Automatic annotation (TrEMBL):
Biological process, per Gene Ontology: CAAX-box protein maturation; proteolysis
Any GO MF annotation of the entry: metallopeptidase activity
Keyword tags: Hydrolase, Membrane, Metalloprotease, Protease, Transmembrane, Transmembrane helix
Name of the protein this chain belongs to: CPBP family intramembrane metalloprotease
Source species: Chryseobacterium arthrosphaerae
InterPro entries associated with the record: Rce1/LyrA-like_dom
Length: 73
């Protein structure tokens, strides 16, 4: 049971979502959960964390630029 990659992907995604829970809304936990699942599955398939770091940076960068453009405080 503990050697299943699906369990690892789910646990990793849950932790990724929980780490984003400090922002205060459920959407900022659920969306990172799914992104974390995609990242974990990608890492399981390709073992390349560099691409995932770049993707995480780009998601954060685009989100921050959108927030600044819209003017949300």
């Amino acid at each position: 049971m503990y050697s299943s990659p699906i369990i690892g992907i789910i646990v990793s995604a849950i932790l990724f979502g929980i780490l984003h829970s400090t922002y205060g809304t459920i959407g900022q936990v659920v969306i990172p959960f799914f992104i974390g699942a995609v990242f974990a599955a990608f890492y399981k398939l390709y073992s390349n964390i560099k691409i995932l770091i770049i993707c995480h940076f780009m998601i954060d960068f685009v989100s921050l630029m959108a927030i600044n453009f819209i003017g949300i405080k």
